[in-house]
Every structure is written in C-alpha cells, then in structure tokens.
Design brief:
By secondary structure, the protein is α/β, with parallel strands linked by helices. 51% of the residues lie in helices and 10% in strands. It is built from 18 helices and eight strands. It has an eight-stranded parallel beta sheet with strand order 1-2-3-4-5-6-7-8. Helix 13 links the parallel strand 5 and strand 6. The protein is globular and about 60 Å long. Bound molecules: zinc ion (ZN). Zinc ion (ZN) binds next to loops.
C-alpha cells in the first residue's frame, strides 16, 4: 500500500473561518442542508462515524460520539490555534486557496480577513476572488449596467494584481445554472435593467437572481463571460461550482457539468482555464470526459472529499477512467470548522492510496507512477495550474 501520510497537501478550494463564529452543534457542520435536519439524521451518516473515529485517533481518546465531540469542543475552545495545528499537521496541510466569497457580508453578515485567517492557521494562503458577490452588490445598489460591468472588471483586476488572488470563482450553478450562453451586450444590458427595476420596486438582489427568470439568466451569463475573458487576459483559472451544494438553494439539475458545453467550447475563451470544482459530484464520469477532451478544463475534488466519505475512492477511480492525472487537483471545500479541511485530506490520502494500489495490483501499473499521481493530485498540479511557485516537488 502507498504510504502518503507525509505528502504535503495543497487545498485548492476552501474557505476561511473563525472559531468564535462556531455557534451550532458540531454535527450541524457535517451537513450540507440549509434547513433544519434532525440530529438523528446527522449522526447516522458514515461521514459522522469517520470523523468521530479519526478524531479519537488524533486526540488520543476513546468513547462514544458525544464524548469525543465534548473533548473536541473543550480542546478547540482552550487553544484554537494549537488544535487546528494538530489536525492540519496530521495530514501535512501546506497551502490553502481560499474562496473569499464565503463567509462574506452578503451570505453570513461577516467576512474573514486573509491576514487574520493566516495568523490562525499559519498555512500559506492564496485568495480566490468570487465574481457573483460583486454582481449582487451592484444589483442591490441599483447600479447601472455600465457601472456594474466596470466595477466587476476593476475588482477582478484589483484582486489579481494587488491582492494576490490566484483565480476567480463563480457560483452561477446555484443561481441560473450552468447552461451559460454567449449573449450580446445589448441583451445583457436590457436584462440587467429589468432586474434593477425589480430591486427598485423592493425585491432583494438575492431574490431577483434566484427566481431564475430569463432576464436573470441572460444578465448572469454575460457576467460569467466577462469574467472568463478576464481570466484569459490575466492568466488565472476560473473555478466553476459543479455538482452538489447547499440544499435547497442548489438545484442539482442546473449544476450538471455537461451543461457547460457552450462556455467551455467558446472560441474566444480557449485561453481561459476552467476548473470544475467539487468534481461535479455525483457526475464524476461526465467531468472526466470534459477534462479529457477540452485542453483548458481541469477538475478539483473539493466538497466531494469532505462530504462523500467512502465515495471518495470510487469517484477518484471514476475520474481516472478518462481524466489525465496532471489535471486533477485536491480540495476540501472546508468551511466553518477545521475538521472539514482535515477529514477531507485524511479520506483523500486513504482513497488515493487504496485506489492507486488497486491499479498497481490489478492492472500492473507501476508503483512509481502511482506515487507520482498521488503527488500530482495532492500538490503539484495546483502549484502548476494556479502558478503558486516556490513550494513542493516542482513537477
Ligand atoms: Zn466552496
């Protein structure tokens, strides 16, 4: 079996958090649901069992779920930095790419400054700029179409050139879906103006985009195209949410990766690197096909790794059916609590070790190549694709 415990990890998609903002029961953070879910449903998952089992190992304590959680709460509250370090060192977590769009004033009423998060976790950190928040803000301030497009272009430039953002991100899958079409400036302007008139009439910006009307889709598609063009110009990847997410806001049918046909095949966007985040779970085979056939399409494993427990190994193998190994990146989509960052890496190292060992044993694929694939996924691909420089194997 491949031992990957010492391999350094780049987490290519996650979110900053603050210990003081943790206000819910621990198991609540292991659910993707935005509505009330009975405790019984949250503690009777394989993910919960795995987190408890692995916490018991790291903390060196025995007991049932509630005992382990109580010990965890005590340790985390007493010394948050020390506790985080213990978990992150357990998986050799090196670098974090944080999507600064969550938490943010718009979604949670607060944001976390990159400098503050850096002090807390002490990892190398690179921000990812989320485009949708700028569009929401412009809409809620009833800015004109020209002002909104200028603001988005300016904020993208500023994030990449001044604040060190290494990529952009869009959650349009949550809003009007991934069947993103090229639209004319004029149609986009007309559609945007209709949305603004609704906001002026008292609707919230969130409401007018999540109603998924034709005008919302036309306007948002145009802003995604603008952002993809900026990515090509600035040579940074565009992360696109694909697959599972926070229910019931997410309509999984609108988040299917193959809906991206028009965007990823657009002639003008050939130089934009698209990273399909969350491996489009559960549509990993579809993502594998896209990553195989479009030179500018990449994939990361985030969210799938933290939330699908025993599914991680199978889905990595499904991806490997077609996806070139130099285009697959590890990620956790960790947010709110440190355990999500850590358990995702625990499960991914285990899944890569077991999955790649199967290839070595059953398909005579050589051991050296298997280790190289693990290093590519855990570290090297993200360093190359996001041009992080200076860390790790340099492959
Ligand atoms: Zn995320």
């Amino acid at each position: 079996m491949l031992d990957l415990s010492d391999e350094p990890v780049v987490d290519a998609h996650c979110h900053a958090f603050l210990p003081l903002k943790e206000t819910e029961a621990f198991e609540r953070y292991l659910s993707l649901s935005m509505v009330e879910v009975p405790k019984a449903d949250m503690v009777n998952t394989v993910l919960y069992r795995r987190v408890i089992r692995e916490l018991s190992r790291v903390l060196g304590i025995a007991g049932k779920g509630d005992d382990i959680v109580a010990a965890r709460n005590e340790a985390y509250r007493r010394d948050p930095e020390g506790y985080i370090r213990r978990l992150f060192e357990d998986v050799n977590l090196d670098t974090l790419l944080i999507d600064t769009g969550y938490p943010s004033e718009y979604f949670t009423g607060y944001s976390v400054r990159v400098e503050d998060f850096k002090k807390l976790v002490r990892n190398r950190i690179h921000p990812i700029f989320r485009i949708d928040n700028t569009v929401f803000r412009c809409l809620s301030e009833a800015k004109s179409f020209e002002e909104a497009s200028e603001a988005l272009a300016r904020e993208i430039d500023n994030a990449v050139e001044k604040e060190g953002a290494v990529g952009l991100k869009t959650i349009v899958a949550y809003l009007t879906g991934l069947e993103i079409r090229r639209v004319s400036d004029r149609d986009a302007g007309d559609a945007y103006n209709l949305l603004v008139s609704k906001v002026k009439g008292g609707a919230s910006a969130g409401d007018v985009v999540t109603e998924r009307t034709r005008e919302a889709k036309t306007a948002l598609d145009w802003f995604v195209f603008l952002s993809a063009k900026k990515c090509a110009e600035l040579e940074v990847p565009l992360q696109i949410h694909t697959g599972i997410g926070d229910a019931p806001l997410l309509n999984l049918r609108l988040a299917e990766p193959t809906l991206l046909y028009h965007l990823i095949g657009d002639e003008e966007l050939k130089r934009c690197k698209f990273v399909l985040v969350h491996a489009g779970y559960p549509f990993a085979e579809e993502v594998g096909f896209l990553v195989n056939t479009y030179p500018n399409v990449y994939v990361d494993l985030s969210e799938m790794t933290a939330f699908t427990s025993i599914g991680v190994k199978d889905k990595i193998l499904r991806l490997l059916e077609m996806a070139p190994t130099n285009k697959i990146m590890y990620g956790s989509d960790g947010y709110n609590i440190p355990e999500l960052f850590w358990i995702a890496a625990v499960e991914t190292k285990k899944a890569l070790s077991e999955g790649l060992s199967t290839l070595v044993e059953s398909y005579s694929i050589d051991q050296e190549w298997a280790r190289q694939v693990a290093q590519q996924v855990l570290h090297d691909n993200a360093v190359r694709i996001y041009r992080l420089g200076g860390t790790g194997h340099g492959r």
